[in-house]
Amino acid sequence: MADITLTINGQKVSVPEGITVLEAAEMLGISIPTFCYEKDLTAPGACRICVVEIKGWKNLPPSCVTAVTGGMEVQTESPAVVEARKTILELLVANHPLDCMTCEKSGNCKLQDYAYRYGVTSPTPFEGEKHNWEADDSNPYIYRDLNKCILCGKCVATCRAVEERNVIDFASRGFNTRIATFMDTELKDSSCVYCNRCVTVCPVGALTDKTLMGKGRVWEFEKKEVTCTFCESGCKFIINYKDGRVVGVTAKEASAGRPLCLKGRLGTDLMNNPDRTDLPFINRDGEFVEVSWEEALGLGNIVEKINSLKK
Fold first, then answer.
1. Does residue 181 lie in a domain region?
2. Within a domain: 133
3. Which of 75, 89, 162, 215 has a beta carbon 3.0–4.6 Å from 247's, enabling a disulfide?
């Protein structure tokens, strides 16, 4: 595929034909805010926070679904773009709980970050009726607070990508639009398999991993990438440590690859189990008995077998 040349914020760049303005900007290290965009998922271009100004265009197109063309001149932070983004953010903040001090997503919330970036405060020019949905605490692993949902649709898109489960989708219309399960049941009564991929892609505090709630802020965690050994799939995930203790795990990739199953996410609980033993068990006459590592591994026999293979 041939390369084409365009200009972004005065910088010329050659990019592969067919990519989007957003992807071209990323190649230059230019940050364009996004809510509904997630790599490897279908980009709906719905939130409009990623709009840019293109010379010769009458409107401000969303960069996540606008393909680059040769000679295109793009501005990602022009006065018109900044004004449009501030308006979008003011509309979102007007109907969003402002409990950032106690919100589990504080420090890892895109709405919080962009409001700071563009100087959006409350009250906004669009103050009015607010949602008062009842939080769904029925699921043992996912806490849902639809009052914080910004309807970006990323949870719906990633749920469809997990073996086409379609557990959740948009429901109702207008001001009452929300993300709901089939027949609007609680999440525990749906076909959800608790992969938590929706939690990983959520840009705000609408979806929270209950296993991590109250255990610390995102900046307090030390993170280490590991490979899950509970089955043959070998999924990659991140172990979160605080004060040298494992507090939970998060998926490495939100959109691509296999979701992190319950075994992988909850297996770390065994590490902090007070009844856990450091010694192995062997089956002796139909009963599991605690023994030393030397006896369990049969070190002498193993060494003899290895030496015999070398001869």
1. no
2. no
3. 215
